[in-house]
Write a structure and sequence with these properties.
6% strand
Length: 125
């Protein structure tokens, strides 16, 4: 009997592809994911709480490496430090309408993912 269930990673990759995002982004110029995680982890408890709330509605993204990959894919390592790059990516999200609502607050998708990284990094510590 063939098992027709897809593993979680396959489902996520399919969903991301449908949304126009690759599961393995071209990272030839992307910022190192360590810089993303280290920067996000410094944002503190308030950001982590926002991240926890974001993941309540976006549980398929509840993986620190996946989130770091998604954020880093939109950052150009040659264009500045991680915090500045993250701020520029958040601004671009707003300009392009890539926003989410968390507890009534409108956030860029990048901001929400950074907060989720802060939450997950805190859980791992």
């Amino acid at each position: 009997m063939t098992d027709h269930r897809m593993d979680r990673r396959s489902v996520l990759a399919g969903a991301l592809a449908f949304l126009g995002v690759t599961a393995a982004p071209d990272r030839s110029r992307a910022m190192d994911t360590r810089a993303v995680v280290e920067t996000a982890a410094r944002f503190g408890a308030d950001a982590a709480e926002v991240g926890r709330r974001y993941l309540e509605s976006n549980g398929s993204e509840a993986n620190c490496q996946l989130l770091a990959d998604l954020v880093a894919a939109n950052l150009d390592r040659d264009a500045g430090e991680a915090p500045e790059q993250m701020a520029m990516a958040a601004s671009e999200d707003f300009r392009c309408g890539r926003v989410v609502t968390v507890d009534g607050w409108l956030l860029s998708r990048t901001e929400a993912r950074i907060c989720a990284i802060a939450y997950l990094a805190g859980q791992a510590a």
